[in-house]
Hints:
This protein has 5 helices and 8 strands; from the N terminus they run H-E-E-H-E-E-E-H-E-H-E-E-H. The chain has 181 residues and is of the alpha+beta class. The strands form 3 sheets. A 4-stranded mixed β-sheet has the order 3-6-8-7, with helices on both faces. Strands 1-2 form a two-stranded antiparallel sheet. Helix 1 (2-14) runs antiparallel to helix 2. The termini are far apart. The mean pLDDT is 89.
Amino acid sequence: MNRYYETMFRPVKEHGGVVSNLAGDSMLAIWVSGTPDAALRDKACLAAIDINRAVHGLYGPSEPHRLNTRIGLHYGDIFLGNIGGGDHYQHSVMGDIVNTASRIEGLNKHLGTRVLVSAEVIDRLGGLLSRELGGFRLKGKTSAIVIHELVCRLEEADGNQRAGCAMFAEALPPSGSGPGT
């Protein structure tokens, strides 16, 4: 587990993020600014791509204890501070964004994907290849959230990846008009 966590921590730190919490085999990382900053969303996406690549390279083909690493990214306001009561407090992150990111991460299992991001994360970011998967009504949400699969850096994309994303986009109904929206 230490080797696994080290593999995941490195890209977070390299891209200016902070590991906020660990629970079981999962990690919560944050990129924080007092004002909206598209550069932080870009750094989080690059870290996600690098984590996916690094964890995939961590295991050999016959590794018996392979963990299925799934990543979910969302963007918005959080509460960051000391949370607790009585004689127990811990520095933590709270807010709807944390729950939504967790639900997005869990959606990977149902879709057979590894890295999913909300439209709020990917909005107006360049240099990334992604494919919109549609609107999904996540547990605890009243409205659908548009989800994208984050594939890779644009300069690393091969012709098959680009063509596959383009074909998928053609087949997908416009955002907000499909089932679950």
